[in-house]
Amino acid sequence: MRGSRDGRVLAKNLWYMSLLQVANGVFPFVTMPYLAKVLGVDGFGKVAFAAAIIVWVQTITDWGFNYSATREVSLHKEDKGRLSRIFNNVMWAKVALMLLTALALAALTVAVPKFREHALLIGVTFLLVPGHVMFPEWLFQGLERMKYITILNVVAKALFTVAVFLFVKEKGDYWLQPLLSSVGYLVAGTAAMALVWKKFGLRMGLPRWTEVGKTIKDSTDIFINNLMPNLYNSLTTVTLNLFSGDVRTGYYSSGKNLTAISNVLLNTITRVFFPYLSRKQDYHSIYAQVNIGLSVVVAAALAIGAPLWIKILYPDADFANAVLILRITSVAVVFNTLNNVYGQNYLLVKHKDRLLRNIVIVSSLVGFALSVPLISKWSYIGAAVVYVTSTVLIGVLPMVVALRLKRREARQ
Prior knowledge:
By secondary structure, this protein is mainly α. The chain has helices at residues 2-62, 65-76, 80-111, 113-117, 119-126, 128-134, 137-142, 146-167, 176-200, 209-218, 220-227, 234-279, 284-304, 306-313, 322-329, 332-347, 353-411. It is globular, with a radius of gyration of 21 Å. The relative contact order is 0.13.
């Protein structure tokens, strides 16, 4: 009975998350051609620059709770008292981290000329962070209630999509794009907190700072796993903008967008299976075969169809240089999936947080070391090469380690 129930829950969660990713794919296809026409490559580059900075803020605020808290909720979801403490500690930890990063970002905006130049854009893009803090995706995922993630996210994206066509009318409106997205997430976050209160009876009480500190400490290894890839991902975008300006950043960002959307789609399978594999590790091999096979198909479709995809999403001829970027970065889809399969959904499930952290640090430092020489020499093409090289390392190394651990377990 238990096995059939687990299967039904897994199928239902996969269904809801598939619907979400269909929405995640459909909404950009609706808005991107319009935004490309109105904002141009230059506007895309500005938005990508600010988004890359806020990715760091958001990663610090998340602090690895998307995996550590999900794992804890999954293991203790039947214990209401323990669940309440997990919720309270994680939410206060995220609030404290958000306030600290806001202060640091304000100082950087005053001190760094390039940041001052885009101060308004960075400020409105930062408003995404409170929305993400209020949206306890880790809780819904750990409770295996993916329908709430789907419904609330689709509402947020629908609001954003409608607002784009209503308010973004000219090139100077580029700052409205992140502002409207932020409003959508704030609405979804507020609704999520109300749902958590009414449906699950959980609410934020007074913080016990010793427990909050321990919650942060216990998730530090996973936080490093999440943070370090920004050395070759978002920091690459920032470095490219500093060396080459907004237009070439626009080429890189628009070309990599489809790769990023594909990664989000494939990450859905990882997220759905993570709480399940935390309890049922014997099914990892089947999950791995399906996920890796699907990633190969997606990467091939991106590379072969790159001219068509770019023409559909960015009809303006100024975006033609994005075709090469999409073809280069499409390779990363397979290796991102290897990291999901053998890093997130094997090493983390096995509580090998520190081992995965070390792998991610090494891979990310290689990307960071390559970024300045390659970007200064080959601009946006160099940025794509940096991204792919680091993703290959961060996919292959966890796979090698995980397979070695599997063989060792099989001999015991």
